Amino acid sequence: MSARILKPTKENIMLCAQALKKGGVVGMPTETVYGLAGNATDSDSLTKIFLTKERPTFDPLIVHVSLEKATFADLMREQLIYPHDLADEAVKKIDVLIRKFWPGPLTLVLPKSDLVSDLATSGLEFVAIRMPKHPVALELIRTFGLPVCAPSANRFGKISPTSAQDVEEELGDRIDLILDGGDCEVGLESTILKVMEDGDLILLRPGAISREEIMEATKSPVAVITGGKNPHGPQMAPGMGSSHYSPDKKMIMLPMPLSQIMSPPQLGQATPKKIGLLVMSGQAEDAAVILSELLETEVIAETLSESGDWAEAGKNLFKKLRALDASDAELILCEPCLETQGIGYAVADRLKRASAPKK
Ligand code: TXA
Ligand code: MG
Q: Closest Cα to atom 24, ligand 1: which residue?
């Protein structure tokens, strides 16, 4: 059986809301990546999300809301968080962040209320919440009337989907309905920021809303603990393991940008007949010629942004990775991304994980 891709008409959004009411899961567009949405208040529905994605239950889910004006008071009305644990400083920062960045690609990790299921948070005392910007996601959540949990709609560890067709490719044999909201505008998963009880801020996953923008808005520092490892205490970002967003094919990161490589890169295996290459900027054809001459083999290349624009690169990353994975190249090589700020930093993070050795 194959999933139906639905145009986002009122009737189809209603159909999907009804499926959610019956405990089902549906493919939902957001501005970042497509999500697999289920009723955040129904443990059967949450179980279905984990099973459909083959996702381990230690990896918590993001609760998606659709609020009137998006303020801290709105969030309180949803009764998802436990505000008594928060210092005034923390409340102030959360309000600033919500007003400035919601709806949008910023997930806040906050002390959870008892109403939030332990299944959604994998037993953690904190819950991840975001208000997406995509009109179809907002309309679906509003029509459904309750928050939805929505992990990216890919099989666990695989490349996140940025179109309805990608969701069909990933999960089409396991779900019935996918709402088609077009290509995702951002293309990278949301920035995840943990707000500690005292108001300290910790970046758990970089995304389109940068650490610099968050520091600017809150006038405070933002610590970085990506990859889940926290030298100061318990694990903070479960499910952010080193290997993630992986193509099915083996992917290797070049030791330096292609323009600096003078001798054939070490592949650790015989040179395949055809190699797929992902470069950060410039013309794909030029890059293909350079690598093809170095390795004396056929190369097909994709570029993230010819002009070197990081927003465009972020939007293209998963799409181009998916294209190389589907091509007849036997191995994928990518340039390293050396950016340490802005969206480029999020691209660097995803590329590092996509090319990490699989465990
Ligand atoms: O852009 C996005 O955030 C997309 C779209 C669909 O909204 N969703 C998404 O969900 O990327 P997912 O499940 O693929 O990634 C969620 C990650 C988890 O792997 C975990 O690292 C982190 O969010 N997370 C969720 N709840 C958390 C919590 N309570 N504490 C710490 N990290 C949490
Ligand atoms: Mg994911």
A: 60
pLDDT tens-digit readout, 111-141: 999 889 999 999 999 999 999 999 999 999 9
Token output for 322 = 């998916």
Tokens read off for 138: 């907002």
- Which residue among 49, 63, 107 has the greatest number of ligand 1 atoms within 8 angstroms of its CB, and so is best to mutate? 107
User: What does the block give as tokens for 245?
Assistant: 């967003």
Predicted TM-score of the model (pTM) = 0.96
pLDDT tens digit string along 73-107?
999 989 999 988 899 999 999 999 999 999 999 99
- The CA angle 35-39-41, to the nearest 5 degrees, is 135
Measured in whole angstroms, the distance separating CA 4 from the mean position of its chain's CA atoms is 23
Please state the φ and ψ torsions of residue 280, each to the nearest 5 degrees: -75, -40
Cα angle 249, 335, 308 (rounded to 5 degrees) comes to: 120
* AA letter at 117: S
